[in-house]
């Protein structure tokens, strides 16, 4: 769900290789085909995305935006970190994926590192451990929510059945446009400010 390396955007290649070896030792890929997502801690955010770091991420973890086809579903992994940029060289690959996406009569499950926009007073539900909402704020190399304009474009273009997001560290569940559920997946790290780390298991048939 992104942020594979806690501060990877600040690392030179030598230190990255050291941490990559550690990552692969912890998350062994035995008899599974993992799918990865890029996060702002990996490459930066928006206009601050470093294309060299994006290339490095894709070299070791695969494309930043892609589709996984399941029997009855399409899993659309969309690089909203780069898509949030106003710079064409950063934004255009993710934008092209969004514009060309075709569901081919399958339901779409959308994955975005950054949660989509919602009204400031929209509750995250009873499973959230910290504040009741995700605040729409931003700072150095981060933005808590995808902008309203971009969120509206994504939802109108993709028309997902379900949305999964990350970045916030805590659980959040909201409904977009009356029917589209978005679940922000909590961190399973013990060092990210959440008393009870968690995960989400998705079963598809």
Automatic annotation (TrEMBL):
- What membrane topology was assigned to this protein in its record? Multi-pass membrane protein
Q: Mind telling me which SUPFAM superfamilies this protein's record contains?
A: Metallo-dependent phosphatases (SSF56300)
Family annotation (InterPro entries): Calcineurin-like_PHP (IPR004843), Metallo-depent_PP-like (IPR029052), PGAP5/Cdc1/Ted1 (IPR033308)
Pfam assignment, any one: Metallophos
The signal peptide here is none
Q: Which UniProt keywords apply?
A: Membrane, Transmembrane, Transmembrane helix
MF (Gene Ontology): hydrolase activity
Q: Name one GO biological process term.
A: GPI anchor biosynthetic process
Localisation: Membrane
A single GO CC term, please?
endoplasmic reticulum
Primary localisation category: membrane
Taking every annotated instance into account, which residue ranges of this chain make up the domain Calcineurin-like phosphoesterase? Answer: 2-170
Report if keyword Transmembrane is assigned. Answer: yes
This protein is called Metallo-dependent phosphatase
Organism, by scientific name, is Rhizopus microsporus
């Amino acid at each position: 769900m992104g942020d594979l390396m806690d501060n990877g955007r600040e690392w030179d290649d030598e230190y990255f290789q050291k941490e990559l070896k550690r990552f692969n030792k912890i998350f062994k890929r035995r008899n599974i085909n993992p799918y990865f997502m890029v996060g702002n801690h990996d490459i930066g955010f928006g206009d601050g995305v470093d294309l060299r770091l994006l290339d490095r991420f894709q070299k070791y973890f695969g494309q930043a935006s892609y589709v996984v086809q399941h029997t009855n579903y399409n899993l659309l992994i969309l690089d909203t970190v780069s898509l949030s940029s106003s710079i064409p060289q950063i934004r255009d690959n993710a934008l092209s994926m969004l514009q060309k996406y075709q569901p081919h009569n399958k339901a779409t499950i959308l994955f975005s590192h950054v949660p989509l926009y919602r009204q400031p007073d929209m509750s995250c539900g009873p499973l959230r451990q910290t504040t009741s909402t995700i605040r729409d704020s931003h700072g150095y190399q981060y933005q808590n929510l995808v902008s309203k304009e971009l969120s509206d474009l994504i939802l109108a273009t993709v028309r997902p059945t379900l949305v999964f997001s990350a970045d916030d560290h805590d659980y959040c569940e909201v409904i977009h446009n009356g029917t589209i559920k978005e679940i922000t997946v909590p961190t399973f790290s013990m060092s990210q400010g959440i008393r009870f780390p968690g995960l989400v298991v998705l079963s598809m048939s």
